[in-house]
Structures are given as structure tokens and as C-alpha cells.
Specification:
Length: 332
């Protein structure tokens, strides 16, 4: 039994530097453009909610996302997962900054909707503030590749479609509590706080790192179950990752973020609902490369050279890479 999540440490520093390759109006020498044709295999049922419920045999079921009318994974969902993983293996910021206040519920402390807060020193951490006001082409590795306000992403992800258009299976998933946000770091419980005065009930004074949901989650035997539509285990999904003006080292990082790269970089992706409850594990099973250089000439793929190049850059955060791969190997 585990908590249902693990943390990847935060980088020692955020590497904000000028990135001259972030342009869309021309091809940049030394970069690659084109697309990766990717096949994923579901190792657990995958539930990506559509936001709707429906009735199946008279029972309420959370509907799964449809892609062109068949079960699939929306490109935006996969892009979010791969970006988070890319952030974890690079010296990147946490986009969106620190959330100052939120509400927690805790069985341990008997709290329900009690105010919680990050201390000033946490909110002032470099990972939140390095890029509050990005200018020119000064960006961290993840924002440079995946985009941020006023900088377009150089990578896009298409919707992934279930091959053979296999229908959803109806799975039982324990109803989940909202995430216990006070578990993001060591915290102080203020007795007497949280009663509408200025003192929060929970004050988080440091961060464990970037949080990733993993199996097995906490005991859920007392929790109510709900029915969900899920892409069945062993389904294959196919889609593309398209890119423009991406450096070979960035492709190396991208491959590792996809759970691919060199044999030692291989790891699983976790996507959708119930990640700590036996859902959502996918693995890349093949990639076909359709890449060309700035002059339009075809480029043969070299996964080892690209990943080695990524590891040699200061963008790479080795401790994050090691931990991310470690927690996503085997059953997770
Ligand atoms: Zn950033």
C-alpha cells in the first residue's frame, strides 16, 4: 500500500536563457521539424472523462472521451501529461505560479473545507517566480518547447484513436476524494486557525516536489464505487506528435518524457482518471520518425544520440530524470 503518489524533486535552479530557435516564421539551422507517428498500448483501463454522465442498462456511467466518434485520448490530455514529465526532467518552472490559498479536507485532522496556505517563502521559490514576466526569448526549457503566454508551442499532439475502434468497457472506479493538497509538502497545523480569521488551518512551509499519481493508492474499501467508460487494457492507440524547429537535444528530452528514449529511459505514462486506483497506465510501443532538417532534407532518427545530447545540456535535470523513470517502471 502506498499513498498513491510520489514526488520528483524540484530542480536546484530554473534555467531561463535566450532561446533563438523559438520562431515559427522560418526554419532554424540545426533544428528538426516534422512528426512522430506514435503507437501507445494501454496496460490498464484508461478513463478520460468527457465531462458527461449517461445511462447504461439503467445505471449512471461517466462517459469517456470520443475521438472522431470512437474511444480515444484527446491530444490535449496527452500533451499535458508529456509536458508535466518534460518539466520534471528539466530545470523548468512550475507554470501558472503558486496557488496562494485553497481549501482542504482531512480525515486525520477532522477538517472539511478548511483554508490552507503556502507560506510566503514557498510562493517566492524560483520555480514559481523565475518567469513571472517573460520577455524577448528568455524562457525555461519547458516553456520554450511547450509554450506559454505569448509564446506558441513548437510541439502539437493530435488526438489518439483506438485502433480497431474497440468499444469502451464499463469499469468500477472508487469515487475519489479531491487531492489532499496539504500533502504537497511539510506543513503546520494551526489549532484555532481556519475559523474565518486570517490564520489558515494548514500552512505548507516547503514543497516535496512535483507530484505524480501512481498505483497502488490508499485503501478504498469504504469508498463508494462509480461506473466509468474506459478504454480496455491491451488497446492500441495511434496518433502523432508534430514539431517545428526543435533541437536534437530537445527531441531527446521529448522522447524520455514520452517514456521512450534509450532502453534505460523507458517508463510508463499515467493518464486520465483513477491513476492511483489501477487505471491510466499507457506505454509507447513504437515510434516512426518523419523528420527533416532546416533545408527540408530527410533526417534519420538517432534516439541514443538525441538522448545523450539532452543529458549533456544544462536544461536536463538529472535527479528529476532518474526519479521520474524510477517511479514509472513496472506496475505503477
Ligand atoms: Zn517556464
Amino acid at each position: 500500500m502506498s499513498a498513491g503518489y510520489a514526488f520528483v524533486p524540484l530542480p536546484d535552479r530554473v534555467l531561463v536563457r535566450e532561446r533563438t530557435e523559438i520562431v515559427h516564421d522560418r526554419r532554424v539551422q540545426g533544428t528538426l521539424s516534422g512528426r512522430l507517428e506514435i503507437t501507445l498500448v494501454a496496460e490498464q483501463p484508461v478513463h478520460v472523462g468527457s465531462g458527461y454522465k449517461g445511462l447504461v442498462d439503467g445505471k449512471a456511467v461517466r462517459r469517456g472521451a470520443l475521438v472522431r466518434g470512437v474511444p480515444g485520448v484527446p491530444g490535449s490530455s496527452l500533451k499535458g501529461v508529456v509536458r508535466s514529465r518534460y518539466e520534471a526532467i528539466t530545470r523548468s518552472c512550475i507554470p501558472g505560479g503558486a496557488k496562494a490559498n485553497w481549501k482542504v479536507r482531512s480525515r486525520t485532522f477532522g477538517l472539511d473545507n478548511a483554508p490552507a496556505r503556502l507560506t510566503r517563502s514557498v510562493r517566492d521559490k524560483e520555480v514559481f517566480c523565475a518567469q513571472e514576466y517573460p520577455r524577448d526569448l528568455m524562457l525555461c526549457p519547458a516553456c520554450a518547447l511547450w509554450g506559454r503566454m505569448s509564446f506558441r508551442s513548437r510541439v502539437s499532439v493530435t488526438d489518439f484513436v483506438s485502433l480497431g475502434a474497440e468499444p469502451f468497457e464499463i469499469s468500477k472506479m472508487p469515487k475519489q476524494f479531491g487531492p489532499n493538497l496539504h500533502h504537497v509538502g511539510p506543513f503546520k497545523r494551526n489549532t484555532g486557525g481556519g475559523r474565518g480569521d486570517n490564520e489558515p488551518a494548514i500552512e505548507v512551509h516547503d514543497l516535496h516536489g512535483r507530484k505524480f499519481a501512481l498505483c497502488p493508492g490508499p485503501a478504498t474499501t469504504q469508498d463508494a464505487m462509480e461506473l466509468v467508460e474506459a478504454i480496455p487494457r491491451r488497446s492500441q492507440l495511434r496518433g502523432e506528435m508534430r514539431m517545428k524547429n526543435v533541437l536534437p537535444a530537445e527531441i531527446g528530452g521529448l522522447l524520455i518524457a514520452l517514456g521512450w528514449g534509450r532502453p534505460r529511459d523507458r517508463s510508463a505514462l499515467k493518464l486520465g482518471g483513477g491513476k492511483a486506483l489501477g487505471f491510466g497506465r499507457l506505454r509507447v510501443s513504437s515510434i516512426t520518425y518523419r523528420l527533416h532538417d532546416h533545408a527540408g532534407k530527410d533526417v534519420l532518427h538517432d534516439e541514443v544520440a538525441w538522448c545523450d545530447a539532452f543529458e549533456r545540456t544544462d536544461d536536463c535535470f538529472p535527479a528529476g530524470l532518474q526519479k521520474l523513470v524510477e517511479i514509472h517502471q513496472g506496475d505503477c
